[in-house]
Specification:
The complex is a heterodimer of chains A (188) and B (253). Chain A is mainly alpha-helical. Chain A contains 9 helices and no strands. Chain A has a domain of 114 residues. In chain A, helix 3 packs antiparallel against helix 6 and helix 6 packs antiparallel against helix 7. The C terminus of chain A is likely disordered. Chain B has 11 helices and no strands. In chain B, helix 3 runs antiparallel to helix 4, helix 4 packs antiparallel against helix 8 and helix 7 packs antiparallel against helix 8. The chains are: A mainly alpha (188), B mainly alpha (253).
């Protein structure tokens, strides 16, 4: 445990604070709640995956088809209302998906804790996958909150347009040597 | 004077905890924890006597009695691990692996920094040694609490109280040692009071948690098919992949 006093102090303070925080979490936990969850892993499992199965729902919410239709009506007020509503629906869907991912992991933990052959590496891998999914959900929530549900599609369309404009501006051979068009069109 | 009051209060609470443990038959459930309590009660009596009648020897006696308490205190962590994870063999193995990893890292670090006789170091740098051992204990408790929280291990009020109290004690000690580098001159006069008050708080937590018997909640066993770990992992992975696919579509549309 060598090192400079500042380093040691930081380590000690961090350890102490984290430990006290974790213990607070431990103290606030309720065994009864855990028991209820233990008793119903099957029910939890059946409940989860509701939104995950609705592929059509995803297409319906995020497809630019509705927006194109509303835009074609040429009513700025209607378009604004549509954007607001669709943003809310999209955020609800992503948050719900995030909650269900959490539920999947919780069900896994509650069942796997009784398993005799629990594997540390597999559990760590699942934890990483879980964190990746939750981060992705948080990122989507952030993007949708700021730019709306069609943000990534708009970005791809913009990049595609930019590429074509650049390709037209560049000499013939430079465009051929460059990155080929991705084919990521606006259509779903 | 105030130090004496704290001292007697601590002795009183320790004795009360031991008597209550005997009455409620908790000694059989947590033998290491109650051995630890007995040890610190004897330590406190002994230290008090030395402080009262041979104050010049107090420092040596303090450090000589501190190390057995530290070692038995570490065994308390092991008892919490053993009792809480009795019904969870897989989780217990995971906790054991994590704890082994922590101890191996610290042992490697100690070997790397080791110079001279260990006994010489014990005498010369007792305080540093205690500080480092507290860090080891803090890391062990950190690992254990993380596993307990992640797998939602139900433990019952008694065991939770033991772990919470000892964790609080170690956490506060680690914080105190951290603060000493910057504010030693300011906190030196308050140091004995801070230590005594924090320990009284810990004893209060233990008294509250161990006043009566609270059994560890029994877990409803999962059907054997559900316990098949490989199937469970495959199912969880499948659900994660479906979620990822949905999120991918949402992002690409």
């Amino acid at each position: 445990m060598g090192g400079s006093p500042v380093m040691s102090t930081s380590i000690f303070l961090t350890c102490g604070v984290i430990l006290v925080f974790l213990l607070r979490l431990l103290a606030s936990g309720r065994d009864g709640e855990d028991q209820a969850r233990v008793a119903a892993p099957e029910r939890t499992r059946r409940k989860s995956g509701y939104a995950l199965q609705s592929r059509e729902l995803v297409f319906r919410i995020f497809s630019p088809g509705d927006r194109d239709f509303v835009s074609s009506l040429r009513s700025p007020q209607l378009l604004r209302m549509y954007r607001e509503e669709r943003r809310k629906v999209a955020l609800h869907w992503v948050r719900r998906t995030s909650r269900e991912v959490g539920e999947i992991m919780r069900t896994h933990r509650l069942i796997s804790r009784q398993s005799h052959n629990l594997n540390v590496a597999t559990e760590a891998g699942l934890l990483l996958q879980y964190l990746e999914l939750r981060s992705l959900c948080s990122l989507l929530v952030l993007l949708i909150s700021i730019f709306g549900p069609h943000a990534l599609n708009d970005l791809a369309t913009y990049a595609d347009g930019l590429y074509h404009r650049l390709a037209r501006a560049l000499p013939e051979n430079a465009a051929v040597d460059g990155v080929a068009p991705s084919g990521n069109s606006a259509a779903p | 004077m105030l130090t004496m009051v704290f001292w007697w209060l601590a002795i009183l609470l320790e004795a009360l905890l031991l008597v209550r443990g005997l009455q409620k038959n908790l000694l059989r459930r947590f033998p290491i924890f109650y051995s630890y309590l007995f040890l610190i009660l004897v330590d406190d009596f002994f230290r008090f006597s030395v402080y009262r009648w041979f104050p010049s020897h107090y420092s040596q006696v303090y450090w000589a009695t501190q190390f057995p308490a530290l070692v038995v205190g570490s065994a308390v962590i092991f008892e919490v691990y053993r009792v809480a994870l009795r019904a969870y063999p897989g989780t217990a193995r995971m906790a054991r692996n994590l704890l082994s990893f922590v101890f191996a890292m610290i042992f490697a670090n100690s070997l790397a920094n080791f110079s001279g006789s260990i006994f010489l170091r014990l005498v010369e740098r007792a305080e540093e040694l205690e500080r480092n051992l507290r860090i080891v204990q803090a890391l062990a408790i950190f690992m254990l609490v993380s596993v307990f929280l992640w797998y939602a291990i139900p433990f019952g009020r008694n065991l939770k109280g033991i772990l919470f109290g000892y964790g609080l004690f170690v956490g506060v000690r680690v914080l105190q040692y951290g603060l000493r580098y910057y504010f030693w001159d300011d906190i030196k006069p308050l140091w004995p009071y801070a230590q005594a008050i924090s320990f009284l708080m810990v004893l209060g937590v233990w008294a509250g948690a161990l006043w009566s018997v609270h059994p560890v909640p029994e877990v409803v066993p999962v059907p054997p098919l559900e316990r098949d770990y490989e199937v469970l992992v495959a199912s969880t992975r499948g659900q994660f992949q479906r979620a990822l696919a949905r999120l991918g579509w949402a992002a690409r549309l």
